[in-house]
Design a protein that fits this description.
Chain A: InterPro entries: MetI-like, MetI-like_sf, UgpAE/MalFG_permease. Chain A: Keywords: Cell membrane, Membrane, Transmembrane, Transmembrane helix, Transport. The structure holds two protein chains of two kinds. Chain A is mainly α. Chain A is about 70% helix and about 0% strand. Chain A has twelve helices and no strands. In chain A, helix 2 crosses helix 12. By secondary structure, chain B is an all-alpha fold. Chain B is globular. The C terminus of chain B is likely disordered. Classes of the chains: A mainly alpha, B mainly alpha. Chains A and B meet through helix 1, helix 3, helix 4, helix 5 and helix 6 of A and helix 1, helix 4, helix 5, helix 6 and helix 7 of B.
Chain lengths: ~325, ~290
Amino acid sequence: MTTTAPGPGRSPTRERPATPRRPLTLRRRESRAGLALVAPTLLVTIAVIGIPIVWTVVLAFQRVRLATLRKTGLFGEFTMDNIDRVLHTPGFAETLWVTLIYSIGGTVGSIALGLVAALVVRRPFRGRTVVRASMLLPYVAPVVAVTFVWQVMLDPQLGIVNHWGQRLLGWDAPVPFLTQESTALATVIVFEAWRYFPFAFLFLLARLQAVPGELEEAARVDGATPTQRFRHILLPQLLPVIALLGVLRFIMTFNKFDDVYLLTGGAAGTEVVSVRVYEFLTARTDIGAAAAQAVVLAVVLIVFVLIYLRFFGRRVG
Amino acid sequence: MDRDAVETVSLRWLRRLVIAVFLLVTVFPFYYMLVLSVRPIERLLLDPGALVVGFGELTVATYAEVLRTTADGGQGFLTFIGNSGLVAVAATVLTLLVAIPGAYAVARLRFFGRRQVDFLFLAVYLFPSIVIAIPLFVVFTRAGLRGSLFGLVLVYISQTLPVSVYMLKNYFETIPVSLEESAAIDGAGRLGIIRRVSLPLAMPSIMAVALYDFMIAWNEFLFALLFLVDKPDRWTVSLGLSLLADGVEVPKTVLMAGSVVLTLPIVILFFASERLLTEGLTSGAEKG
């Protein structure tokens, strides 16, 4: 590539002299450069993401197990067995339901916490930078480490939560938060809200700081109290970001594997679809069934997002 | 007092209280992790409620056990740190090499399919990683790539690429076109413009993206678990730690020492670059 400066009157006449289509050549050159520069990104994405997605769909309609893997070709015999089996195995509907509750709970919790956090650190105060950085810790810390700390903190024998709960709050017996059906799912949702509120916090804080000061000032002059100013001035400004966060967090939580797997291993009524797929893939080495569940997961997710966009589409855009 | 004054005063106190609660809730688990990692397990069992390390209680034996090689009766975390570091640095450097030209092209150049590329990245970013994991598991098993760090790096690149391109693109768009045009008039070619004008200007954003990529790769768990589980000498810190918990009775204090080893590099990196990172992550979000 040589110069591409659009200099009127002194255009280098190399490729198509004397035709009025000169700008098109420039445009074409730009297009070629663009494709060349974006090619590595596309290649990696297609090779490591695109092809695997297509292949998952193919696998979902084949009878494949890890043991027979070396013998099956890419396009072997097609069958609806896996999908059929997956939809009718006991526990699948429940898993889907748990995933849904977990996703909605985690999404709402993390956005609510993030909103409160953003509102309280909006105005400058001493130590604000440190406070803001500390609030991001749960989000940046490694998932394996934070799930361990939570496990130890909630441990019935030597966990600090049960220790102080019995001392100060008068609990009769230690609560096995992560291993009993009645509390496990709620605990996992609380963990999710704790770990991901910084994500919502960052976006909401950035938006809050972009709200012009005059708006609030004018409302104050008109006699609006702080809660009224929040309700009628700030909240409408934040709604598009909240709507966007809603869809982003929902998708991410719906797909989440690490958090639940590490906290409970999917036991005590917390089995989400990702964990179930993993179990099929490794413990049962039933690749066909795993792929079929993954496809169902993706389809359900897409349906939810489409419904959401239908209702909030204008705001998200 | 009127409603305005009541609200103003009570909200002022409420705000302080809420800040204190947030600080407690976010920082305490990390503090607890640190305290537990330097207490002997017998002391922890006797007094699980203690919030400070008692006098004369302090021990670093937990760290010694975690870091010693398995031949010496330890858990071999030094090897894991080496693996994690290698994988994370390689993934970061390679992601940047691929993402910078890509982001520049999407931000600046009109080419066929530019809008679709944008959409593609968003879709990839939000696609369930467990879906991608299945065929990769199959391919890697077949190709004998399971248990290779190279395979893992490749996966990490694909995982960090969409967000990296997105963040860099947003930044490139804020650089005035006129700067690049004047360089072009001075006779610089497209690559020269990128190297001499755009890259130096985008340095803060590139650093932020590099840190982000490093953190993602260092923290990652699912793919490490799927691909490396059979090869103990290739384990990353995350994987090693999670499998340590499954194994024979390992004291919780040792697990906490391992957690500190895993968390510390990230926390140090994060506090050293907090401003850069938070601004890099949300730049462009204002348009909302």
